[in-house]
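FIELD: query
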Amino acid sequence: MDKKTTGYILVSFGILDFILSWVGMDITYWLIGDLSTFSPFILGAIGYYLIDSADNNIEISCPHCNKAVSIPSDGTYDCPHCEKVFTYGDVKEPNLEDKGIEDQLKEYKSMFSKGLISDEDYEAKKKELLGL
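FIELD: result
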């Protein structure tokens, strides 16, 4: 079972636990102390984290066939289209010099949000583009 499915199950169980607690049923009675009281929130938070962490894929073009693939930003991958193996390092960075400053900033912000560049790299590029 993948992380996203497990996350949805935990969130669903947390919601069910919360609703049933309002009608007087405690389905997490076996938890120690007051943990049973907070179990809907704990289960929901863990589930949300699992769902959120499973969506860290990025859309890139395969360096062999140039078709779009969705992959995590690290490791070695088999392209589902051409079935050739590549690493994230094989993918060329987009040519941002042809775009305006606003478009370049949006692209770098997107790269930062996907974890492809660090905060320091993003801030340095932002200052460079804005001439600060």
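FIELD: remark
Helices lie at 3-22, 35-53, 101-113, 119-130.
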